[in-house]
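Hi L.,

As promised, Sarcosine oxidase subunit beta:
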Amino acid sequence: MRYSGWQVLAQGLLGNGGWRPAWRDPAPKPAYDIIIIGGGGHGLATAFYLAKEHGLTNIAVLEKGYLGGGNVGRNTTIVRANYGLPGNSEFYSHSLKLWEGLEGELNYNVMHSQRGLINLFHSDGQRDAYTRRANAIINQGDDAQILDREGVRKLLPYLDYEQTRFPIFGGLYHPRGGTARHDAVAWGFARGADQRGVDLIQNCEVTGIDIENGRVTGVQTSRGAIRAKKVGIVVAGRSSQVAAMAGMRLPIESHILQAFVTEGLKPCIDHVVTYGMGHFYISQSDKGGLVFGGDLDFYASYAARGNLPMAEHVIEAGMTLMPMIGKARMLRSWGGIMDMSPDGSPVIDRTHIDGLYLNCGWCYGGFKAVPGSGHCFAHLIATDRPHEAAARYRLDRFATGRGLMDEEGTGSQHNLH
């Protein structure tokens, strides 16, 4: 079923009884050419591009819960390509270009809104750092503008510009940045993969990875053994646990990142705004809720919930930047399990086991990377060669020290990114 305005109108007039399921619910087959472990945004995108770009359809995506039930459905939905380092800059530029054509490619409304993103700066040193980053973004072929204080005030008049401790000096404006509907991204990729013959198997937990003579031969699951020629691990905060099934110890720590949403309000925040001195970021959803987040909880955990001191810390930063937020009632909060790499940049690479591939370490960048990650991971699995946009995302950089991509310049340590 193709979606269109006419279809919405017709179904509305007919009581919405004619919609068909968006994807099948197949039982697992005994064997596949490729198994993707993880039915989140990255895993579903990988399966979609394997089928669309490489013509491979004997594929299964295995998800221990329901599709899109992990980080892709619990994040602050920001999409951007304003990275400064070689390697990250090319990749996120590639991903943003895929975002811009995604709805037409999927025939699915992911509600991608390029409302613009503004990173505020609060000192001369921050201004210099953002100016360097703006030049790097422009050199990559993407968009960036440095705004002075009055330029920011024209776009964001509701901020507190007279903060005694952290006055606003200006901002780095990325007009093509914005947001998208997180659930819709998962649903769109799931529907697109299913239409091309991929089996999306829910409630199928991987409990073991079968290896013979240094080569992967399949997986053990809660629904029985499944053979495969190639297996891709793309499970975000569970990366270390799944890789351990293959005898691998990854340079990944899992931390909790909280996010928050208020009651629905009339439109008041038109952009995505980040606070340079409080690690606070905020946007307004299409339903009117203010969606915001901040720092990690700074302790390793697999619990998809946060702690109250960090909630207080994030909200204090929001109150400092925009006191008006204090009038909104917070509706809910949640925590996502983040796979934190030591240098803050991801891994898309083959492992030392033939036929086993790894996609992890996305830190804060997972949602905005979904199309690019899936596209590059599919290319790697299909061709055994890295995609040029992800060529620097090698796993061995943590063993050799060569090619580390410390985007924030804070050192190679998980909880600093």
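The mean pLDDT is 95.

Thanks again for sending the construct details.

K.
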